[in-house]
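Changelog entry: the Calx-beta domain-containing protein record was regenerated in this release. Current contents:
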Amino acid sequence: MKKYITLLFVSLFALTACEEDLVIYDVENGQAIATITNGSQQTLPVPDTGDTAIIEVGVTTVSDVDRSISISIDQTQTTAQPDEYSIDQSTLVIPAGSFVGQIEIDANFSAIPETGITSLVINVDDVAGADALEGTLTHTINFFRFCPFEGDATFLGDYQLETVTLGIFDTPTLTDGVVTISQGATVADRRFSVAAYPAFGAFTPFQFSFSLICGEIVVSQVEGINVGCGGANGIAPTTATISTYDSADDSELIINFIDDYRDQCGWGAPEVQIRLTKI
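Regenerated structure tokens:
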């Protein structure tokens, strides 16, 4: 997941310093320019074992001593909470004799929200002995939870939807039949279009969305499914029966969720179960 970009630099010729404590930043007396070399942003899927993002900071000249890197968090743009990440302070340096330093940011799986994306925006404020290349010293890291699928499993394509447990009024909440599962905002997110309450008529389909997160299926809350009692009913994830999946087998998914979670119809917001079988 780490990208390495090779910088082209002019040839350097060694000069001998007259004083032992002289710091030589540019042995050709040219300007030392600092920039972030691996782009302005990256997306980091974080498994339950955690992961590390790298920000590469490069300069156009070498130094005979370590160059310190000063950074700050852009609080106006950052949505990640402080416990979602930690910055390895020992990596805030470009080592002596090197053109590139690698800042390490460790992501904390347990603190990252169960679904969705959060962002950490880091400004590189200063690199000792170098001038910043304008507009290149801000980097965004997008965090989300995800454990890679195994084998040929993709959890995409056509599935047969079957109601296992009924919803309000002892009827299916979703329409049985073939649905097409596609990827959502991240590689962990899935969605399909389906109409609600087929027993009561033909209604406009809505997006049923869920996330596959390290063995657990998390259903996204939907405020309105285009039909309901005194307003559009909503569905929500359940905490009673957690849905799970096998990361190496996408042949079947069994998903539990809450029908009419606000209980607008007075049926007690029942837990519904559906089965999706790959065609």
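The CA atoms of residues 226 and 232 lie 5 Å apart.
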